[in-house]
Write a structure and sequence with these properties.
It is globular and about 40 Å long. The protein folds into two domains: about 1-70; about 70-210, Nuclear Transport Factor 2, Chain: A, CATH 3.10.450.40. The protein has helices at about 1-70, 70-85, 135-150, 155-165, and strands spanning about 90-95, 100-105, 115-120, 130, 165-175, 180-190, 195-200, 205-210. It is of the alpha+beta class. The chain is about 50% helix and about 30% strand. Strands 4-3-2-1-5-6-7-8 form an eight-stranded antiparallel sheet. The relative contact order is 0.09.
Length: about 210
């Protein structure tokens, strides 16, 4: 009898242990599920955060690139106009038709003024370049402007960009209080128009003010 009782006790322990196994397994599975869910949420949040950060950085780069490239078409129009004439000095470049075209004035060595129109990219000539018959006074003025302009139109564009980041809508040589200047307008990212004059010889700023005219 004692022997049979001793055998029964181990059997009871084994039964209890076996009965506890499903509970332990269930708890283990629940713990894994909770950990996986938590990790998944954390990973998703991290991925979302990283995605937002990347998108923001890309948007910022795009904006910067757009600003830096805003006057590429204008400079292309200058090169296209000069090439179409064959040689000469660009004394004026201006956006037309709300930026869908450019008008460029090129003066050749004989003092003749050539008017060239380009497309929006500045890479193609539209129509036929027009030649304006210049009288003695016009030729003298052109010669004065060209002689005084140590800064060519490309350097003038750079000088304007140093003052204001934005699109140059017009730029040309003119006389201001007896001094030859590059004068023009720059429209910044907020839409504000800045009217600027710089000395065509030294590049010094002569005037720089906000244009409030509509």
């Amino acid at each position: 009898m004692t022997f049979r009782t001793q055998l029964q006790k181990p059997s009871a322990r084994r039964v209890a242990a076996l009965a506890a196994l499903p509970v332990v397994a269930a708890l283990a599975l629940t713990g894994c599920s909770t950990d996986d869910t938590a990790n998944g949420s954390s990973d998703s949040a991290a991925s979302s955060s990283n995605g937002s950060s990347t998108t923001g950085a890309t948007g910022g780069d795009s904006t910067t690139a757009a600003s830096a490239a805003s006057n590429d078409a204008l400079l292309a129009a200058v090169a296209t106009a000069r090439k179409s004439v064959g040689s000469g000095t660009v004394i004026s470049v201006e956006q037309e038709q709300r930026g869908s075209a450019y008008e460029v004035l090129v003066v050749t060595k004989d003092g003749t003024e050539h008017e060239v129109h380009t497309d929006a990219d500045g890479t193609g000539v539209t129509g036929t370049p027009q030649t304006e018959t210049a009288d003695a006074d016009d030729r003298a003025e052109h010669e004065r402007f060209v002689a005084a302009a140590d800064l060519d139109v490309s350097k003038a564009v750079s000088a304007f960009e140093d003052l204001h980041a934005g699109a140059i809508t017009e730029l040309g040589l003119d006389d201001h209080l007896g001094k030859v200047v590059w004068e023009g307008d720059v429209v910044d990212g907020s839409g504000t128009k800045h009217s600027v004059r710089i000395d065509a010889g030294s590049g010094d700023v002569v005037t720089d003010q906000v244009d409030t005219d509509d």
